[in-house]
Amino acid sequence: MDIAVSTLAGKESGKVSLSETVFGLEPRQDIIQRVVRWQLAKKQQGTHKTLGRSEVNRTGAKMYKQKGTGKARHHSARAPQFRGGGKAHGPVVRDHSHSMPKKIRSLALKHALSAKLASEDLIILDELAAKEAKTKTLSGSLDKMGIKNALFIGGAELDANFKLAAQNIPNIDVLPVQGINVYDILRRGKLVLSKDAVAALEERLA
Fold first, then answer.
1. Of 95, 127, 162, at which residue does a domain stop?
2. Do 104 and 18 sit in the same domain of this protein?
3. pTM over 0.70
4. pLDDT truncated to tens, each residue of the chain (206 aa)?
5. Distance between CA atoms of residues 32 and 69, nearest Å
6. Domain boundaries, position 194
7. Side-chain-facing half-sphere of 54: CA atoms under 13 Å
8. How many domains does the chain have?
9. CA dist., res. 38 & res. 47, Å (int)
10. Are 14 and 80 in contact (CB under 8 A)?
11. Beta carbons of 195 and 126 less than 8 angstroms apart
């Protein structure tokens, strides 16, 4: 399928043919959701921690004698029912990540790309390059194109001026093609690919 290519100035710059096997699939939400959950689980720190009975810094001596007090029998003040005692079944440091087959990850990326094309939220630019690293200039160009919330994917190496100019614009992310992922594609409204990024993705996923 053919899609129009434009410049950062908003002018037409020909067309590019997209692979049906990468951009033309019928999006499956279940596959996309699986990979998004996998990505978010990997990001989760899992550093929450409470002190258990064996970790609380309190005496382990018996609180009072077993008999003759008229009260219930107790041993250690570290028990969870006492103020200052350890937490029963509290959270511990753990790894929340789980495995995901590489084929499923690649397939989900294809479905995410196809979903953006199907919803007409995919834009192809001839290149992601700026003459100078000025946020105001780039912001003005994006406003003319109607881009307010987008993920920009460049080639293997990003243009330094474009990256610097874009980093202070709200809701605009810029990644090299090797950093493209399902979660970042979905969290932004538009997906903007350079021609180099399209070629690299088709070579990688076709």
1. 95
2. yes
3. yes
4. 889 999 888 888 889 999 999 999 999 999 999 999 999 999 999 999 999 999 999 988 999 999 999 999 999 999 999 999 999 999 999 999 999 999 999 999 999 999 999 999 999 999 999 989 999 999 999 999 999 999 999 999 999 999 999 999 999 999 999 999 999 999 999 999 999 999 999 999 98
5. 64
6. 2-44+97-205
7. 1
8. 2
9. 18
10. no
11. yes
